[in-house]
Amino acid sequence: MASKLPLSSSFTPKCPLTPHLPPRSSTSSSVRVLCSHSSKPSLLTLLDFIPNWSDEVQERGLRRRRNLYTPDDWRAHRSSRRHLRHLISSLSSRVILSLVPPVLSFTAIAAALAAYNSAVAAGWLPAWFPLLHASSLPYQLTAPALALLLVFRTEASYARFQEGRNAWMKVMAGADELAGMVISMGARDGGVDAGLRRALLNYIMAFPVALKCHVVNSSDVKADLQNCLEEDDLAIVVRSKHRPRCIVEFILQSLEIMHLEEAKWQILESKLHSFHEGIGVCDQIMGIPIPLSYTRLTSRFLVLWHLSLPVILWDDCNWIVVPATFISAASLFCIEEVGVLIEEPFPMLALDEQCKQLHDRIKESMAMEKLIHKQILTKMDRHLDERQVNGWPHL
Length: 395
Prior knowledge:
Blueprint: H1 26-63, H2 71-77, H3 82-88, H4 94-97, H5 100-121, H6 137-184, H7 192-215, H8 221-225, H9 231-239, H10 243-257, H11 262-271, H12 273-287, H13 292-317, H14 321-343, H15 351-390
Helix pairs in contact: 5-13, 5-14, 6-7, 6-12, 6-13, 6-14, 6-15, 7-10, 7-15, 9-10, 13-14
Main location: membrane
Protein name: UPF0187 protein At3g61320, chloroplastic-like
GO biological process, one term: regulation of photosynthesis, light reaction
């Protein structure tokens, strides 16, 4: 009868034996590890550097504050030297700098294809390597389609830009009218109505600023609103998810507390319609872009066009395909880039300066209202004194 033998014995070590191998050179292994792991990241970093730099230049340009034009700016805008000035400033243009990655890529592809065709034509490569060239007839047939795509893309973007500008101007006009009506109500010195009216005017001045912060991503809400609102009101607005609507609610509540006559209440409430309309238009513009299928079609068309452009132009241009591809890519992609930029209209507008102008106008109107009111009372008193002295109305 066979007995079961144990799988281990006293002579079998409980831990596996490790062979004694000669130590490897740590220097060579570290070099191999560094080479195997650092070559790919360094290549990716090199390839990502130019697009990342270009995107950063573009984002810095979007964060830059715009200024309203002055007469000097218009004079420079229509100057006969503007073309030379624009040419000199090309290297600082964020539109042109944002095109560096695609333009350089297509120019490098054109140079590689020209080198390949030159090598094939010179017989430096085996005979079975084909010469990459084609007829220009397909490009002549598709050129109008590309032109229409770019024109429609730019026109659709400009329509969004104009819609956003018109909505913003309605908001500013509505705020100015509403503030003027509140100021014209008159103030009672030392009363609750005077303080409530002052708070209501602050809310009106704060609304365009809050709407600007809502549509411009790089805005500092707390810093921009601290000159318009008190600390407790500012804390409530900052915590709100939709800050412009929160300020509209402040305005409505203030109007209700003032216990105005029905006619005045309806007039003031109708002025708030421009605020609600402006919020709706701005939310739609910021949340709904031009149909993405159209944007992608235009982009794909441009890419395929310039990928095959050196092949089409080789028979007529030879090495001239390199500068020809560069000029074509720079011009057509520049048109497409302008359409993409103005598709988001609010960073293109001088919103900060317009908000500051509204703030200054309302403050000046408040000061002038007190001065004019005092001046009229003085005149009435003087006329009353003259009437009492002479016994006749003063004409």
